[in-house]
């Protein structure tokens, strides 16, 4: 059997040498399957691509796919899947925070039964308070509104069969999450658990702006909750407005003690316009993605593909 390991990277020159050495050493001992490693250069501006090409890649076949610019890690994973030839496909990352032993553990698990997808779910994340809190909040929302099988601490690594890869390649989605797409395909799935390791070199390219974009993409691409939220808010405000108007009318008739002023009016207008703008923003996100999809622009553009020497 052949396993394709997709490794996206962006400006990871500090980690490339140790990454390749780790891969070569590991697959020298691994004999259960043949390994194909696909490096995806997501528009790096440092020497990462050059270093990957110059390395001595042993005990596995490999290639490097380079984008014309930075399209994001999920686009890089999709490009890797499109060019993978293995019976199974999995993801790894240049910082090696996810232990390389996961590949064999995932392979053994997927070979044991009739599962098409095996997830590696984190026991620990080794992140700071803010990142851990954001991750838990994101996971709880995904579990409630997207899929009940979404794990509490999330996942970054998965192995899936060629059957699943074919479906993904037939549905390359822009402004989406590759992980949620796989999770919601409906194929038989299972999980293993692991401890995420601390990053040894360099800084994470997973910035706050990218996290916010993923958060928005996840909801809009896989859940109707935001647009339903707009409807609920509209109905709630309508009922509240009717009730408040009746209250003012009755009080005026019975007591005639209401003092005219600007305070209440300004408060109502401020809250009303704020909710209206939030609602319009949510609707605009859906409209923008519909427009973006209708233009059929590529999710990624490949500059070149280089077969690496073994």
Task: Describe the fold and architecture.
- The chain is an alpha/beta fold.
- The chain folds into 2 domains: 2-204 and 298-307, Spore Coat Polysaccharide Biosynthesis Protein SpsA, Chain A, CATH 3.90.550; 225-294.
- It has helices at 16-29, 48-54, 73-82, 102-112, 129-145, 162-170, 178-183, 208-222, 225-254, 263-294, and strands spanning 2-9, 34-41, 61-67, 88-91, 117-124, 155-161, 189-195, 302-307.
- β1, α1 (16-29) and β2 (34-41) form a beta-alpha-beta unit.
CATH top level label of the largest domain: Alpha Beta
- In the CATH hierarchy, what is the superfamily of the largest domain? Spore Coat Polysaccharide Biosynthesis Protein SpsA, Chain A
User: How much β-strand is present in the residues?
Assistant: 15-25%
Give the uncertain stretches in residue-range form.
Answer: none
Going by helix content, strand content and strand pairing, the class is alpha/beta
User: Architecture of the largest domain, CATH level 2?
Assistant: Alpha-Beta Complex
Strand line-up in the sheet with most strands: 7-5-6-4-1-2-3-8
Shape estimate: elongated
Q: How many discrete structural domains?
A: 2
What is the number of helices? Answer: 10
CATH fold description of the largest domain: Spore Coat Polysaccharide Biosynthesis Protein SpsA, Chain A
**Rg from C-alpha positions?**
25 Å
What series of H and E elements makes up the topology? Answer: EHEHEHEHEHEHHEHHHE
The strand count comes to: 8
Average pLDDT reading: 84
